[in-house]
Amino acid sequence: MEVTLARKIDKKSILVFLAENSNKSKKSLENIEKIRESILREHAKKEKISSMVEKALSTLKIPDPPLDEHDLLTGQKLRNYSQSLEELSKRLQDLARVFSEIDKLLPQLKQKTVELKKLAESLTAISPSLSSEILKLTNKSEKLLSSLDTEDPYRALDEAQSLLREGLRLEKIGKNVYKQTVSSILEEINATKLVLNKALAIAILQEKSILEKKMNELEKIESQLREILEKVERVDPSRLKEQIAEIRSYAEGFLSQSLSEEELRLAEEIAKLSSVYSGKNIKLDQFVDRLSKRADMDKESVLAIIYELARKGIVRVYIRL
Known about the structure:
The chain is an all-alpha fold. It is built from ten helices and no strands.
């Protein structure tokens, strides 16, 4: 059977035509061999028909493929072409993987960029250098996100991964710095509360009213700090420390006017010991001995001042018999 190809048929159609017919021929050859082997296996050894089987099969020889040396050259070209297609397929598969990773990574990078910009804003007054470093990174991220159309996919993926890793690193550092700063301010507030409570214990009338207002201011600052600590919002530590220092200075000034130098010194040492023995019992003689050494006072004076401080409500001493 003679097959005529159209003159203007494209090369891909020729390849498909050759592949289809080559595959059909291959399957037909395999089927013929299978049938011949089946006939020989079933009938060639049967005495009455063996000669007839051999004679019939000899007339049905498998024709050689209609190919010559030129066709062999074409086959080699097709083999090379097939190898190049396999290589292209691998590259496309890898490219598909890259695009999938980019597609998964970009929303993460975009979200992290938003979070980092907020963190940088929160760190402006705490650590300007760290805030600046974070903003530089977010600028790079935004630049990449806005210029993806012109980027090489592999380079874009590498850069996105690098930016996200660096963003996570800076985020961890930034949040730790923020938390440490706010926590240190809260510690100052607690220390100032102790001083205020001592002052309130001996204050009367108008002075007590002023100290109570100072305590309210301090508690308001504390409440705001605890709230923003969770949200990581912008805070100005210098301004807050000034406010806290002003409140503490006022309370200490009041105490210094109301207590003698020895009473103040001993009250401070008692406060330090109370933080060490918080919730624990200590023998009176040990307590007096420690205060005597720390405040550089004789024991009789320590006992007398403890009595005065307890009477004024600065300290509370309990005796258990």
